[in-house]
Design a protein that fits this description.
By secondary structure, the chain is an alpha+beta fold. Helices cover 31% and strands 17% of the residues. It folds into 2 domains: 116 residues, Cyclin A, domain 1 (Orthogonal Bundle), CATH 1.10.472.20; 96 residues, SH3 type barrels (Roll), CATH 2.30.30. The relative contact order is 0.14.
Amino acid sequence: MNGVHDLGGMHGFGPVERSPAPPTLVRWESIVVAMQRDTRTSGAINIDEFRHGIERMGPVHYLASSYFEHWLDGITRVLLEKGRITEQELETRAASLDGGTELPAPPRVAFEAARSTGFRRDVAWAPRFQAGDLVRTSTASPAGHTRMARYARGKLGTVCTTHGAYVFPDSSAHGLGDDPRHLYSVRFAAAELWGESAEAGTSVYIDLWEPYLRAA
């Protein structure tokens, strides 16, 4: 989807600040990390649903909030939509924190841990493209989740590697199952993506699913 989260190639957000030392999480951030891992491990939320939850944040809120605030907002949104928690439960918990007196932790719900099978899937059909093929990316702008970055749409590239079939995020994020599709590493000349402002002689490699590609 064309949301504020898709910042690739956009200007005006300042330099990326790099810390010389690994960041230290404050307590609430550590709790959010634990929430994300628990909801993933239990199978309550898959990685694509999690990402799509964040993508639907209001743009002003997204830009004004921190990385782990994005995580918390996305997790909360998807748990509410799936009925795992209720608005009343959320409001009660928030009110207890605002008042300075935290309620006892609710009893832990026992979920059967989802068996990790990774994201690669075996399929009976061969990949449409091979290394060396010229391809052009789709110009579609779906309203739902996609891993096709906006800055790379409608661009000409060369397939470098076929990775095999993997879970298709555009389906997985919307409860449509794994829907595996072949995945490729595609090389783009930087000038194809950025035009005259690109650094000369450089390339960008992007992993892209087959539905994003067309023969050139």
